[in-house]
Task: inverse folding
């Protein structure tokens, strides 16, 4: 295994991008391992697209460095693009071409045979009859499917996907998730940005959360969820027992026979404590990535990342 | 060379190129016919003194000689429109247009350097311009043969006329390409390219119609393409050198600017 193939799929080190006074990206350091599906989360203007565009060589960093598949994102951009597939956010395609002609053109430019095209077209319901039509006649969802196909048709080592399910109906979203699973199984790396937290939670191995160009968190999805507080509710026959000793239980509110609260960490001690014939109902809501995400944005974090936040411990 | 990009650029222009090349050829054929039909009358009108002689010429062309008529045919607004369409539209559409439509990032996510992209477009634009300029000149030659005045032309000089014309239009094409890679939107790139062309044309025509400001022609690229003089074996190497510089400088600027530009996400 040479140095390039042993290197991470994506690595940024102090990556910074300023547009005049505007700080689009500030000292972003992260690594994406080969073979993982990596989610890149953040609201509009957080710096997701800026990061992706630096990785592709569209933007030049103001400071710091970035490498993709062991190749420098600035000096070796062309070599990088031989090995990747890219789906831009809100993709635009060549309206005057038919779907087939556009895919052929982009495959020719890529210089690699479109070995996965037919399979992707089948899974994304883009039959030959549709691909014979001009793209100008396509719906937004069909354009998005074309975008996914053009990005993956040559079976790239790394897929960089910006908002990949934007405009897809739920059925096609499921088909796309299944394609992602196959990519993961084949050892391909996926670097995707998304606004859809349930999607990221479902398909990603790890997640980076950025805010105003800074890395706020970089964790596995499981790790991130484990840190979240679950909402718990229980209804009791008679008076609610004393739960003050349950580790991780907080925000307890008791109203008659009902108790609500939040639970952080292991649920077993809580369940053991409340397990009783007097328990009428128990609801433990699953931890959602959305809450984790919102927590990072609920606070005003204009200064440095707090020491307890993983931003500075982020390199995995 | 990225052949898919090259052929696609040509393919996107093939229909209008065919139509305009046919129209340009037809226009070229008309010029000798007009010369044969009206040159005597125009010469008499000029000799009558009713109109100042300067008013009887247009740019570096006139209807007092076959070479003069050939020049006029190539500097007439109709001919300018034919060629300018391709000196401006394809270069602007190829970069600023793709950027505005959002397709440039799909293209540049392929393993093509921006320098190569620029170079391929420059070659494609040059080829397109060569077709239109050739159509104009061949049309004039065909017309001259049809009306029996071809023997008044030194046909051996025709390749040099073609080279001179192509070089001049390449200068405008190169400028448009440089403008195209410098802007994210079509309107400013198109506006700048059009302004550059019109300013050059204005200086040439102004100087030809108003002798007091004849010096303005020296500053026009159109003045560096005088088919009549070339046909008479009086080609000025300085004209070729100036046009070559006017072509190379925008190309160098484009090759410098384009790879260094930040291509931020489309608005």
Result:
């Amino acid at each position: 295994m040479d140095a390039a193939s042993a290197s991470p799929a994506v690595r940024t080190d102090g990556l910074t991008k300023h547009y005049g006074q505007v700080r689009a990206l500030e000292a972003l350091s992260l690594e994406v391992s080969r073979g993982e599906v990596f989610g890149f989360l953040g609201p509009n203007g957080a710096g997701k697209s800026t990061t992706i565009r630096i990785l592709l060589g569209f933007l030049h960093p103001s400071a710091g460095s970035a490498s993709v598949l062991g190749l420098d994102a600035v000096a070796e951009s062309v070599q990088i693009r031989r090995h990747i597939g890219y789906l831009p956010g809100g993709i635009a395609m060549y309206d005057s071409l038919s779907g087939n002609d556009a895919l052929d053109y982009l495959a020719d430019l890529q210089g690699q045979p479109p070995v996965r095209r037919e399979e992707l077209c089948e899974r994304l319901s883009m039959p030959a009859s549709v691909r014979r039509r001009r793209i100008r006649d396509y719906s937004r969802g069909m354009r998005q499917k074309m975008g996914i196909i053009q990005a993956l048709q040559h079976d790239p080592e790394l897929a960089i996907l910006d908002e990949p399910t934007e405009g897809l109906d739920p059925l096609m979203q499921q088909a796309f998730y299944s394609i992602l699973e196959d990519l993961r199984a084949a050892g391909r790396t996926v670097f995707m940005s998304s606004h859809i937290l349930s999607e990221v939670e479902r398909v990603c191995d790890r997640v980076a959360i950025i805010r105003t160009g800074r890395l706020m968190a970089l964790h596995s999805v499981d790790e991130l969820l484990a840190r979240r507080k679950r909402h718990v509710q229980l209804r009791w026959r008679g008076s609610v027992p004393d739960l003050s000793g349950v580790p991780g239980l907080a925000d307890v509110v008791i109203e008659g026979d009902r108790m609500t609260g939040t639970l952080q960490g292991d649920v077993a001690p809580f369940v053991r404590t409340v397990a009783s014939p007097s328990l009428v109902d128990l609801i433990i809501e699953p931890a959602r990535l959305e809450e984790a995400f919102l927590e990072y944005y609920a606070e005003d974090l204009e200064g440095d990342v707090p020491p307890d936040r993983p931003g500075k411990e982020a390199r995995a | 060379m990225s052949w898919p990009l090259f052929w696609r650029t040509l393919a996107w222009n093939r229909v209008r190129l065919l139509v305009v090349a046919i129209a340009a050829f037809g226009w070229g054929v008309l010029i000798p016919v007009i010369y044969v039909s009206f040159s005597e009358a125009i010469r008499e009108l000029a000799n009558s003194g009713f109109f100042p002689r300067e008013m009887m010429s247009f740019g570096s062309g006139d209807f007092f000689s076959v070479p003069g008529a050939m020049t006029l045919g190539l500097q007439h607004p109709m001919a300018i429109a034919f060629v300018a369409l391709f000196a401006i539209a394809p270069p602007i559409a190829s970069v600023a247009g793709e950027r505005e439509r959002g397709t440039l990032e799909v293209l540049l996510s392929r393993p093509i350097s921006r320098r190569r992209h620029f170079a391929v477009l420059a070659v494609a634009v040059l080829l397109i311009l060569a077709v239109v300029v050739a159509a104009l000149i061949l049309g004039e030659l065909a017309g001259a043969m049809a009306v029996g005045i071809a023997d008044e032309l030194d046909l051996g000089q025709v390749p040099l006329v073609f080279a001179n014309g192509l070089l001049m239009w390449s200068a405008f094409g190169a400028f448009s390409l440089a403008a195209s890679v410098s802007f994210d939107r079509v309107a400013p790139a198109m506006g700048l390219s059009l302004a550059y062309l019109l300013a050059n044309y204005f200086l040439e025509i102004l100087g030809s119609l108003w002798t007091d400001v004849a010096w303005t022609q020296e500053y026009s690229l159109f003045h560096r393409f005088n088919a009549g003089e070339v046909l008479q074996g009086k080609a000025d190497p300085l004209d070729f050198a100036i046009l070559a510089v006017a072509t190379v400088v925008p190309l160098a600027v484009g090759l410098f600017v384009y790879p260094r530009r930040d291509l931020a996400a489309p608005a």
Summary: The mean pLDDT of chain B is 90. The interface with chain A takes residues 2-5, 8, 12, 101-103, 105-113, 260, 262-266 of chain B (CB under 8 Å). Chain B is about 75% helix and 0% strand.
